[in-house]
Amino acid sequence: MLKAIYPGSFDPVTNGHLDIIVRASKLVDRLVVAVLENPSKTSSLFTVDERKEHLKIVTKHLKNVEIQSFNGLMVDFANKINAKVVIRGLRAVTDFESEFQMALINKSLNSEVETFFISTSVEHLYLSSSMVKEIAMFGGNIDTMVPFPIKDFVLEKYKK
């Protein structure tokens, strides 16, 4: 059984993230979408528990996907859940450099873990969680940027 991890902050989950999740879930037996608990990131829009709940909502139709969170090194988490593959999405060439570096570091820390890169679909190339947050903060339309069930959660954060 091939188990993979798709780690990220998912703050908020975007249609680009969901695209990668759906496509990756077709390639592996089990996909763990892992929300990073990053104590150095103090400007999160959503708590880790909120992000996990949002991911559960938008992936409930994918029977081989589970949502978890982790802290510390991703390769340690991979060992803990016996995952051999890390999924990373790429939007542009600029993503590749840092993702490639991270893949090499992970490989040096755990030679058993392989990184699979999946290119984002063309319609999601421009998306990032930080852009979604900025657009929502200024009252812009995020309809095509986040999964429909998540939209109101994002907009509600900026009404306060």
Structural commentary:
Helix content is 43%, strand content 19%. It is an alpha/beta fold and 160 residues long. The chain has a single domain, classed as 3-Layer(aba) Sandwich (Rossmann fold). It is globular, with a radius of gyration of 15 Å. The chain starts with a strand and ends with a helix. The model has no long low-confidence stretch (mean pLDDT 94).
According to CATH, the fold-level topology is Rossmann fold
Helix content: 40-55%
Question: What is the number of strand segments?
Answer: 5
Query: How far is the N terminus from the C terminus?
Result: 46 Å
Shape: globular
How many domain modules? 1
CATH-defined superfamily: HUPs
Major β-sheet strand ordering: 3-2-1-4-5
CATH architectural group: 3-Layer(aba) Sandwich
Q: How would you spell out the order of helices and strands?
A: EHEHEHEHEHH
Main β-sheet description: 5 strands, parallel
Radius of gyration, in angstroms, nearest whole number:
15 Å
Beta-strand percent range: 15-25%
Oligomeric form: single chain
Give me the secondary-structure category: alpha/beta
Low-confidence stretches: none
Mean pLDDT: 94
What is the tally of helical segments?
Answer: 6
Please identify the top-level CATH class.
Alpha Beta
